[in-house]
Structure formats: structure tokens, C-alpha cells
Amino acid sequence: MKRREALQRIAVLSATAAVLPACDFAPVPILENIPLERKQWRSLEWLANQIIPMEGLEVTTPETRTDFVLRMVNDCYEPEDVEEFVTGLHGFEEYLMGQFETTYNRLDEEQTAQLLTQLQEGDSAPKEIQYFFDTTRGLSRQHFTSSEYFLTTYLDYEFVPGRYLGCVPVEG
């Protein structure tokens, strides 16, 4: 191989290695009632992770919290509610730009806490965004509280059939 070709290939490989980490290959679920773009899916994922932070917990579920929220809204809610949720999801980024003049991934901890407080109080947000937040918060809680981790760690739940106690004295 000639030196010039080798240098060209090294340059192409270096450029590819530099650009590749910025690419986002995560699959976005395709739902019948919720038209979703990758940016909106990421903002929903961020919001769900801010509502219940999962760092340090060994929670394993068959689906992510974001997928659970979207699937529940898509499958279980009335069409009017789905439309209001989608409108709130689309307006969430604009609401952040209006309140903090930045996107969700550039918020610091103090701004994030302020945003969550504002949305929990429900004073400053439009109705659709408030509905979007309340729905996301409720479904995130439902997803966490129905996980095996929560049930076994906090509620001392035993899965069926439970324990077998062979010889138990009967008091009478």
C-alpha cells in the first residue's frame, strides 16, 4: 500500500471515530396514536428520570420507564387524552425555552429542581404541559412501584407460591 493511501485511510478512520459518538442509534418506539421524534422521546426520558432518579438502584424491568409511559398512554387512554399528552410533549421544549432559555439537557440541578417545583405546583405551565407532566409523573410512579425491586425491597413482597413451611405446629 502506498503511503498516500494509508494516510487518507487513517484520516477517514479518525474522522469517523470522532463523529460516531455523537450519533444516536437508540430505537424510538413506533406507536399508533403518538407521533414521536427522537428529540421528544429523549425529553420524555429525561423528565421521567428526573421524577424518579434511578442512579445507584439495581432495578431491572422488561421495558424502560419511557416505553412504559408511552405504551400506557397509547393503549389505555382516550383519544382526547392522548392528543392532550402529545400536545404537552411537543410544547415541553418550548416551555423550557420560555422559562429558562435553554433545553432540558443544559439545565443545572437548581434549575431542574425549580422546573419540577413549578410543574408540581401547576401555577405557571399551560394546561397541556401540566397534563403531560402529571401523566408522566403518575405513570413513572406506577412503573417504579410495580417493579420487582420496589416490591421486594420496600414491601417485603414474596412472589407466588411463596415459602413452603413443611412442619408448622398448629396451636389450638
Can you give a write-up of this model?
- The structure is a single chain.
- The protein has 7 helices and no strands.
- It is mostly helical and 172 residues long.
- The chain has a domain at 41-48 and 70-154.
- α3 crosses α6 and α4 packs across α6.
Write the layout of secondary structure elements.
Layout: H1 3-19, H2 38-51, H3 65-76, H4 79-100, H5 109-121, H6 127-145, H7 148-153
Helix pairs in contact: 2-6, 3-6, 4-6
> How many extended strands?
0
- Which descriptor suits the 3D outline? extended
The gyration radius over C-alpha positions equals 23 Å
Distance between the termini: 92 Å
Q: Summarize the amount of helix as a percent range.
A: 55-70%
**Which residues form runs of ≥5 with pLDDT under 50?**
none
Largest sheet: none
Task: Provide mean pLDDT, rounded.
Answer: 82
| Oligomeric description of these chains | single chain
Q: Label the structural class.
A: mainly alpha
In DSSP terms (H or I, runs of 4 or more residues), the helix count works out at 7
Elements, N to C (H/E): HHHHHHH
Strand content: under 5%
Briefly say what this structure is.
This protein is an all-alpha fold and 172 residues long. The protein has helices spanning 3-19, 38-51, 65-76, 79-100, 109-121, 127-145, 148-153. The chain has a domain at 41-48 and 70-154.
